[in-house]
Please model this.
Amino acid sequence: MKNAGLSNEIVLSLFSIKILAGLIVGCISLKYMPSGDYWGLHKEGLLEWEVLVKDPKNFFTSILYNPYHHYNGFFDSVGSYWNDLKNNILFKILAVLNNFSQGNYYINSLFLNFFCFLGHIALYKIFISMYPTKKWGVIFGCFLLPSTLFFSSAIHKDLIVFTATAFFSYGLFFLNKKSNNKIQIAILILSAITLLFIRNYIILVLVPISIVFYYSNKFPNKTFKIHLIVFGILFSAICFIHFLLPNYSPLIIISNKQFDFLQLPCSNTELNMQILKPTFLDLFKNLPSALNHVFLRPSVFDKGNYFLWISKFELIIYQVAFLFYLCWFFIKSKKDPFFYYCMFFVFFVFLIIGITIPNTGSIVRYRSLFFPYIITHFICTISRQNKQIIL
Model:
């Protein structure tokens, strides 16, 4: 944090905003969704705290308890030890924090948001090295995007996912730019393991994108060929697995994940979705609706509550920024390998979100964690010399 190039006043101001966001999320969720995920996780953390105090041995060994008597279904969303594990890990973390906070939700939020703030710092250090003259644009893109700030500040898995993804990107970006590569490798491994257990499909997207980024840095004149080779190998591998090892087919995993989401109770923002069959043809048929859901929803015509209207306004601003960038700046702007890393990473993650998640509210939450990777580029690129707006 000291090496980020930000003054103490700016760091304290940004950290205060982060903490305030966490408090606001807690207050809003307590008033409107007291039995929802945020306070539900807190209550589970209190129960685990009791176990920690009364029976420490059971507290640590219970993480291995498996009610299903098998360890199949690593990518399943229900009826899987691995799916339960991501919540159990968070329960254990909250239980440990409760020793210091005495079970206070808002103090736990303070602790977790300090950890998450380091993720924002990691993103800032990446983008400020790419856009050294766009300090305030980078600050806004990495710290202050409304939906990202809101959903990454809650006591939830989203906070961990945002931070682990930022650390992973930081380790990858500086892998060959720092003198001590061991630190970057350690950051990569730890963040990858975290993502694998908390939200595994993200690391599956990151692996091929990271390979492309790594070799694009090694051979900058062959970036296009590297993209073709890696994605060609990836597509071939998916075909191979689908036809020869169907139990591990990515198409079946995605189809099952969508099915599991569709079995949940309908929400007020439910979307009309066709059930995805695990075939390439059906996947391509579902792409238009998936892209519509994740890039264009909520639209101005969608009904929703006050919070959804805020998301609509924010999304419209991002859409206008994207069109403005695409029409006037895309061809002229310099394309760093990390630019392609961000674009492909966000596109594929958004695609999975659009295909599998059947309601707008959840889509808004899931995709918010990845906006900094694209919006920061747009903010820092949409600037001109002389007559321009300098950010």
